[in-house]
Amino acid sequence: MEQIYIDLRKENLVDTAEDFSRKWCRRSRSWYAVQKNSGSDFSVQAAIACLQHTQIQIALAHLRKKTLGTAVDLEIEILRNVRSSLEAYLHCEHNILSVAPANGLSPNA
Q1: How far apart are CA 67 and CA 54, in angstroms?
Q2: pLDDT digits over 27-71, tens only?
Q3: What are the start-end ranges of the H helices in the chain?
Q4: Half-sphere exposure of 89 toward its Cβ, with a 13 Å CA cutoff?
Q5: 63 in the Ramachandran plot: left (φ > 0), alpha (ψ -120 to 50) or beta?
Q6: What is the rounded distance in angstroms from the CA atom of residue 72 to the CA atom of residue 92?
Q7: Which of 69, 74, 78, 86 has its CA 20 to 30 A from that of 7?
Q8: How many whole angstroms separate alpha carbon 104 and alpha carbon 43?
Q9: Where in the chain are the domains?
């Protein structure tokens, strides 16, 4: 969880820990701080919410790529890495093999 936040923050894809909690994980604004301070990781619900938000951000980045070209390639790469990390976490820690894509998006975007 912490590495995902750090990666998103480093690439300016998330502004604050509160933003990550609310927008990416659909939790209270203090959720990330509480999880980090207690040494906890994602819950299943938070990981799925973050994965779905990541899928949406990947799709939006692809749309921006049509206008901006290669300027969004690094963003897409970071988001794909986040998606892979979340999928691996859900598989390894919770035996969840697949999550339906958010809003009917293609799972391979």
Answers
A1: 20
A2: 999 999 999 999 999 999 999 999 999 999 999 999 999 999 898
A3: 2-10, 17-19, 31-38, 44-68, 73-94
A4: 20
A5: alpha
A6: 30
A7: 69
A8: 23
A9: 2-104
- Distance between CA atoms of residues 78 and 75, nearest Å: 5
Q: How many CA atoms lie within 13 A of 107 on its CB side?
A: 6
Average confidence (pLDDT) over 85-95: 95
For the chain, the maximum distance between any two Cα atoms, rounded to a whole number of angstroms, is: 43
pLDDT at 101 over 80: no
Amino acid at 26: R
pLDDT averaged over the chain? Answer: 92
Find the angle CA(35)-CA(39)-CA(45) to the nearest 5 degrees: 45
Is the C-alpha dihedral spanning 53, 8, 27, 1 positive or negative?
A: positive
- The answer to whether residues 99 and 48 touch, using CB atoms and an 8 Å cutoff, is yes
